[in-house]
């Protein structure tokens, strides 16, 4: 049995407009058919450099929900995002639900896609997490630094690298104030501030997930900040984990020790300066290594996903990798898991 097929119909004039303006974020009307029938939707391209690929990604808005249909063009397995979000949910970090599918536009098969739940107000409402604000880290300026890492000059705005998805100008100011304060405060004052403004249990779980999956870009972008309404503390969750499990975001094989144990942004450096937080982090990692980040736990999930999409991958007209690569990807992921476990266990001794 093959994957579910989602059918999109776009008027030719609107499709031509999208093709001529691939960098536009403007939505055009379309109709969308799934197992529940046909409904009107709005559609646009999404992503950065991937918009120039022959297999592009889309954002689709229905009257109630928003979905991202990711081409996963640079991942020879088409599994890494789905596996990563599954893993984050397993370790207690809220992450988008996913479903592999076949996408058809105006009767033409586009290939295998990953439908990803959007991280928006509905995402948190479904999970019964009251939030005050939702902020995306959209590029590599989202480092919690005061200076631009490329020019070493002060940033024109401390909100550089972020996009406010829910909230007001006050919420923008609260985040920039948070960034400013983690640089200004020292010692016990900073520890108390971090303890009050950062939901530490969530942060250390999120950090563990990013480090274990090996997302090199996951500390400077590709994450979402959300502020708990009652707690008034920031939580974190993952986004765009295609470059993980032994490959980078372009599909190139990378060493299992590429990502360091403490991650790579200023906020993590501030947190890891305190022995109490390092102890919590070490305990968290040891628990995950013993329970969730094992071949025994993860490989059945990998093999099931791989089997589910195999038939349609071989018919995907835009799959860019040799089919032999797809066939061997479960072994690549398993080798990464085993190697990464060894690397983390060695580095934990020096934490």
From TrEMBL:
InterPro entries: Spore_coat_CotH_CotH2/3/7 (IPR014867). This is CotH kinase family protein. Keywords: Kinase, Transferase. It comes from Paenibacillus chibensis. One of its GO terms (molecular function) is kinase activity. It comes from the Bacteria. PANTHER family: INNER SPORE COAT PROTEIN H. The keyword Kinase applies.
